[in-house]
Structures are given as C-alpha cells and as structure tokens.
Design a protein that fits this description.
With 233 residues, the protein is an alpha/beta fold. It has helices spanning 11-20, 22-36, 70-78, 114-124, 141-152, 171-176, 182-191; strands at residues 44-47, 63-67, 82-86, 99-105, 125-135, 196-202, 218-219, 226-232. It has an 8-stranded mixed beta sheet, sandwiched between helices. It binds S-adenosylmethionine. S-adenosylmethionine (SAM) binds next to strand 2.
Length: 233
C-alpha cells in the first residue's frame, strides 16, 4: 500500500504559494543563500528537499536530497536534484563522516522527534561540517498564526480578522506542522554536544506586511519569522 505523506498532493500549491508571495520568498532565499555560503566542492545533503525550489537558485548539482513525498521530489528531480532516497529521514541510513553540510529547510517543522534525526545527521557530517536548520519558530508571529489556524481549523475567524496576510500559507500545511521553538532545537543540539552556533533571521515584520518588500538578513533568532541555526560539528 502506498503511504500518503504530508506534502503529497500539495507540490503545485506549495510552489505557487511562494511564487505569489514573491517578496517573502526573496527574504527566505536571502537567508538560505547566506547560511549555505560557498557550496563549490562541498558534499551537501538536503533533508526534506521538497520540490527543490530554493536549490534552483544555487548550483544544485552539488545537492543530494532526501524526500518522503514523491509529488514534491519528482519536481526536485526535474530541477536537477539528485534524490538519493525517497522516505522519512527517520527511516534512512546515512554514511558516517561524509557530508560538509546537511540542512533541513523547513522540514524540522514536520518532524516530531528531533533528537534521533539530528543525531543521525551529525554522525553523517565530517568534523567541522555544518548542520543548518531553517524554520518558522513556534514562538514567532508566524508560528502563532499557524497554531491558531490549526486549532480553529480556519483562518477565516473573527479572532484573526484584519490581521492576516493576503495569501497565508495553506491551512492544511500549517496544520500538518509540528512547530518547534528555536530554543527547543538549540537544546536538542546542546544535548548532542554541539557548542558552536550561529543564528540568522529574516521576516521580522508582522505576517500581514511581510510580502511588501524583501527583507535583509540579520543576526540572532529572537525576532524573525524565519530563523536559521548553523551548528558546527
Ligand atoms: C516546508 S517543506 C520544505 C521543502 C523544501 N526544503 C523547501 O524549502 O522548499 C517540508 C518538507 O519536508 C518534508 N518532510 C516532512 N517530514 C519529513 C521527514 N520525516 N523526513 C524528511 N523529510 C520530511 C516534506 O515532505 C516537505 O517536502
């Protein structure tokens, strides 16, 4: 029997949402490019690479991908990503001491138990390699909005009247999320003996204004609606 994954059936909607929220996408893309840095001659793994949308703005021939949803992954493959395995990261074995960078761009927000997954990823990194986690923090305005939408089962509620972006993230995908706070992820990594961290953020404006113009990346994690943790092994 074919398992239905969270993003099956949403690949086109996911990409269209970013294309319609072009300035929000540009802000997230700037953060992605900043934390990835120079990718040439590096071995890189994207966990939950989705449709490979962000990777289509870099030399994606250096990126290997893991993705549970065939709908998403088949688009990534068309865009040039080498999907090494279709499946959940929880179920996939990774080789030890192999990668320079492993990143989760938005995928930690769909994973319940982060500890074993980050432990596995750290083992697969070379010494000095980087585990990069980009996500909407649970504690951000975006996190609150998604959790409120999830619990109300709609964004069209009087509590949210005149507060919402024109085209909010699809409710089904917001509701499927297991939103984690940034400090929850930092604490998991600290338990796994990681001591060296860098933090960057974007989407500082409240969600209803986020798509007005692209934002710059700033250091830190306490204000942004999209935050990157860069953890060095
Ligand atoms: C928000 S999307 C991000 C996709 C892509 N990284 C991007 O930035 O456009 C989250 C992705 O994580 C994938 N995902 C969800 N649970 C996963 C898991 N347990 N292991 C690996 N990927 C997972 C989903 O299928 C989806 O493609």
């Amino acid at each position: 029997m074919k398992i239905k994954h969270k993003f099956d059936g949403y690949a086109a909607i996911y990409d269209e949402w970013f294309m319609e929220n072009e300035n929000l996408f540009m802000s997230e893309l700037k953060l992605f490019l900043k934390v990835l840095g120079n990718t040439s001659n590096k071995r890189i793994l994207s966990v939950g690479c989705g449709s490979g949308l962000f990777e289509s703005y870099i030399d994606n021939t250096v990126v290997e991908g893991i993705e549970p949803s065939m709908d998403m992954g088949s688009i990534a493959e068309k865009r040039g990503i080498n999907i090494i395995k279709y499946g959940l990261i929880e179920d996939i074995e990774l080789p030890d001491n192999t990668y320079d960078i492993i990143y989760f761009n938005g995928s930690s927000s769909y994973i319940e138990n982060l500890m074993p997954v980050y432990e596995k990823s750290l083992a697969a990194l070379k010494k000095g390699g980087k585990l990069i986690l980009l996500d909407v923090p649970k504690e951000s305005a975006f996190g609150f909005m998604y959790l409120l939408g999830k619990s109300l089962k709609t964004y069209n509620h009087e509590f949210l009247e005149n507060t919402m972006p024109k085209l909010p993230y699809p409710l089904a995908l917001a509701s499927a999320g297991i939103w984690h706070s940034t400090e929850e992820k930092i604490n998991v990594l600290k338990c796994l003996d990681i001591e060296k961290f860098l933090f960057y953020q974007t989407l500082i404006k409240n969600p209803m204004y986020t798509n007005e113009e692209p934002e710059e990346v700033s250091e830190g994690y306490k204000s942004g609606g999209y935050v990157a943790i860069v953890a060095e092994k």
